[in-house]
Design a protein that fits this description.
The protein is an alpha/beta fold. Helices cover 24% and strands 24% of the residues. It has two domains: 53 residues, no CATH class; 247 residues, Aldolase class I (TIM Barrel), CATH 3.20.20. An eight-stranded mixed sheet has the order 8-9-11-12-13-14-15-16. Helix 2 crosses helix 3.
Amino acid sequence: MSRVTARFWTRVEDKKTPAEEPSKVHCLLCPKDCVIRPGHKGYCRVRGNEGGTLYSLNYGECSACSVDPTEKKPLYHFFPGSTLLSLGTVGCNFGCGFCQNWHISHADAPTTYLSPEEAVDLALEAKAKSAKCIGIAYTYSEPLVWYEYVYDTAKIARQRGLHNVLVTNGYVNHDPLAELLPFIDALNVDVKGFSDEFYRQVCAGKLDPVLETVKAAHGAGCHVEVTTLLVPGMNDDPEDIDRLVDWLSGIDPEIPLHFSRYFPNYKFSLPPTPESTLMEARKRALRKLKYVYLGNVLVREGSDTECPKCGRVVIRRRGMGVQAAYVDNRNHCKYCGAPVAIKGSVLL
């Protein structure tokens, strides 16, 4: 793996360690707060202590690269119908037993080195081939443990007229997030449940830092959408869903919420989420949120964007593509003239 000196860490003073020996380091990137001995890695597996210095071990190491629909992230209100050069790496700072991308997040998937400049060039080549390609998405695995690479690449991409998108679990400390957000245009944050118990037992993390990421990104002017994968019997209790909706609507009722269907994967063998659970969750959420979608499920409801005032379909989707749009050039409903909370143009 390629490595660069990491950001956001300190050396740990230890009177028991001889002065001539390398020190432990304290990683300050995320709330895991890993204290790492020389020759060892943090929880994420991609930040390691070498000789008393913390290194990012996956810098430029790309496990997946593809031009995807923006709707696939999922982002339904950010340049609907567009595409993004999507990049992923290896490693994650969570341990979700239902992980959908465990083969790159928690295993040693093969990688290819791609410098920030090369990544931006690839995105510009994709844009030259199709005006629908608007930038780069850092996705597939957890991009925040790829922090140094994402920061460097996003900065260059912004300078060259491209948009930057994060698809993230949101588990990051305040200072790293604050330094990165000025270069990020949109985020889909995976709020995996709405109880600290669920986060501790299933994800090996905590809920509050994730909620703070959503609030900070929205407050910084980024476009934000939220996804929750509903796992039967674990985070699909109606009261938990109501608490999630209450919290999100308290920030902004126009933030799109995506309920995604769980399928058995990685360490989980529970049966798939019943479609009725997804439909009921959407019904409850629409009491307070204007835009609620369903993912990983083939149902008519939950994929189209409806005008919050007149209820007519203003963006019709099939699969991950936009089939038709009924908004004007200001993203107002063509039927009643009400504004629809879409950032950017609809690209058909």
